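Saturday, quiet lab. Running sequence design on the structure tokens for the scaffold JK sent over.
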């Protein structure tokens, strides 16, 4: 059993660890692009940095992970020294994720809307880790005897921002000792439920309580469970559980559509409470075995999804199936796995004839990252349970790229690159449409940057063109406040195109945070005229360029544009111009969310 379990964890990496590895740490680094005036770029190099705790003290012997977000080869790992410093050398020119972990530590939270930072060789960074929270208590049987070696789970239901967490929700599990005492440490800040009994991680038996329905603290079903608030570095005691010992139910079925002996399929069972996913359990089915099963399942609603990972890196999956367990086992389920969608295209680089842009370093294709992210608002509700939320890729030496293993839904594409004097000019796809009146077919360019792209199971979309152009400008400035005023939290600078013909060009919409000193930096600006506008951003609003440009945020962009036009503060950028010491006057009383 131990070997099967380990193999499953490795197979799970292609879909989930792309999301998990960037979240290993909150990274603060000087990612402001330097004045790149040379055309050559180094071929190999190193990443360096430090790992510190919330008090600024070094975290020695922390494990540091360096991996590319393009695929998931074995991560490069190292350990910090006594001063918390690390170095990973011999890296090729590419984009990298960097994270760190240490026992009992957690990552400092990022803003919900922020993208994880990416690095290239030569960068240095500081990684912040926090002491995690703790939940501890005693588990007793219905006859008040201590329960020994039973698994106790902490299930995160809301993060520190009060939002349901995204992605897989495998609870953190610790076993009780001979006194029935459990202690779960290294917990991120948020609100938790605590339960024991039932098999909630892998689909095979490990103790006598696995077939029971879970008992939630203090002694109830899920509906009456106590909500435990956890804060970083704090210990919550006395979360005791009196075990109910109620029998659970089984959920079983078969997978069909498997095509490869090495596919190693698995099934996820995710509990749904009030429409929100909760804890996730896993089961397996080997290629020549036609069955899977979950035991110890309590009454309630669940989503079932099967996934199969092929040796060449492709993935097949079933459509989500919603089931309701109510007082009995559910058997005879069939999940049909089929191929996922993909998008292929080409990246082009357009140079500039402007003399100011001469001898500026152009982007390296290997240091360019394309991130395709699914729109939650514009994806049908029955497909939200699907795990393929996004894909990442980089162009090859010819500029070609493929984004694989995508579930159904609407997606938006974000492009990240390191080249100060270049900007993202367009993301388009050539389509064929019927010509009005005259009939026949005509080729048209669809604006994917603005409208996104919708995918179905197994769909193969091609002909996507991403264009980077030379001539980008940059802006450094300060918010000018009245004497005695201070910068409010979540203040953002917005830039929107001032030319009417560019009003719907989403790639010219920018939003950047203003720091507590009132300063801001905006890079990779397309030349042209903009309205500059400062506003406090609500938690529910986009707080990054990628989110602001998403198809579902057309209303937000229109609202910002109207406010910016009314403020009538214009700024114009010429090709490769660096505007510094810019001041934007602001009256705090005029701010509106």
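Result came back. Writing it out in full:
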């Amino acid at each position: 059993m131990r070997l099967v379990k380990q193999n499953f964890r490795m197979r799970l990496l292609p879909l989930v660890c792309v999301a998990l590895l960037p979240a290993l740490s909150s990274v603060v680094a000087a990612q402001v692009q330097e004045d790149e005036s040379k055309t050559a770029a180094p071929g190999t190099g190193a990443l360096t940095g430090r790992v510190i705790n919330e008090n600024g003290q070094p975290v020695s012997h922390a494990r540091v992970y360096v991996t590319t977000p393009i695929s998931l080869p074995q991560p490069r790992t190292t350990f910090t020294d006594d001063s918390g410093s690390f170095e990973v050398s011999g890296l090729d020119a590419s984009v990298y994720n960097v994270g760190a972990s240490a026992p009992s530590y957690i990552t400092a939270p990022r803003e919900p809307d922020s993208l994880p930072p990416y690095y290239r060789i030569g960068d240095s960074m500081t990684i912040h880790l926090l002491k995690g929270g703790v939940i501890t208590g005693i588990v007793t049987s219905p006859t008040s005897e201590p329960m020994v070696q039973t698994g106790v789970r902490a299930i995160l239901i809301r993060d520190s921002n009060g939002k349901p967490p995204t992605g897989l929700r495998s609870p953190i599990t610790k076993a009780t000792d001979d006194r029935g005492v459990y202690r779960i440490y290294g917990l991120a800040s948020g609100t938790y439920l605590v339960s024991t009994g039932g098999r909630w991680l892998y689909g095979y038996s490990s103790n006598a309580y696995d077939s029971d329905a879970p008992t939630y603290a203090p002694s109830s079903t899920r509906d009456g469970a106590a909500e435990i608030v956890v804060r970083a570095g704090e210990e919550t005691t006395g979360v005791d559980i009196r075990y109910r010992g109620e029998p659970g139910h089984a959920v079983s079925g078969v997978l069909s559509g498997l095509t490869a002996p090495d596919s190693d399929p698995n099934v996820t069972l995710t509990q749904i409470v009030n429409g929100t996913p909760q804890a996730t359990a896993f089961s397996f089915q080997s290629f020549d075995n036609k069955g899977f099963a979950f035991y110890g399942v309590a009454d309630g609603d669940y989503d079932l999804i099967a996934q199969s990972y092929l040796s060449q890196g492709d993935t097949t999956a079933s459509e989500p199936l919603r089931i309701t367990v109510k007082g009995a086992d559910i058997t005879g389920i069939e999940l049909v796995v089929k191929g996922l969608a993909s998008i292929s295209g080409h990246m082009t680089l357009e140079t500039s004839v402007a003399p100011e842009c001469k001898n500026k370093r152009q982007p390296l294709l290997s240091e360019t990252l394309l991130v395709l992210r699914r729109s939650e608002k514009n994806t049908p509700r029955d497909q939200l349970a699907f795990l393929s939320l996004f894909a990442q890729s980089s162009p090859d030496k010819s500029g070609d790229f493929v984004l694989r293993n995508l579930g159904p839904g609407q997606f938006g594409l974000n492009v990240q690159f390191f080249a100060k004097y270049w900007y993202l000019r367009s993301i388009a796809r050539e389509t064929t449409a019927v010509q009005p009146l005259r009939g026949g077919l005509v080729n048209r360019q669809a604006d994917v940057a603005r409208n996104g792209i919708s995918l179905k199971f197994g769909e193969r979309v091609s002909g996507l063109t991403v264009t980077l152009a030379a001539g980008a400008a940059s802006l450094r400035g300060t918010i000018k406040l009245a004497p005695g005023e201070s910068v409010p939290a979540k203040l953002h600078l917005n830039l929107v195109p001032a030319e009417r013909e560019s009003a719907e060009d989403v790639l010219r919409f920018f939003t950047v945070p203003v720091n507590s000193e009132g300063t801001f930096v905006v890079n990779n600006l397309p030349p042209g005229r903009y309205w500059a506008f400062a506003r406090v951003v609500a938690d529910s609003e986009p707080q990054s360029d990628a989110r602001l440009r998403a198809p579902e945020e057309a209303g937000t962009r229109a609202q910002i544009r109207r406010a910016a036009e009314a403020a009538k503060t214009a700024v114009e950028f010429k090709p490769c111009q660096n505007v510094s010491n810019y001041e934007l006057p602001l009256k705090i009383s005029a701010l509106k969310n």
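Notes for JK: Confidence is low (pLDDT under 50) at residues 1-35. The first strand starts at residue 26 and ends at 29. Ask whether to fix the surface positions before the next round.
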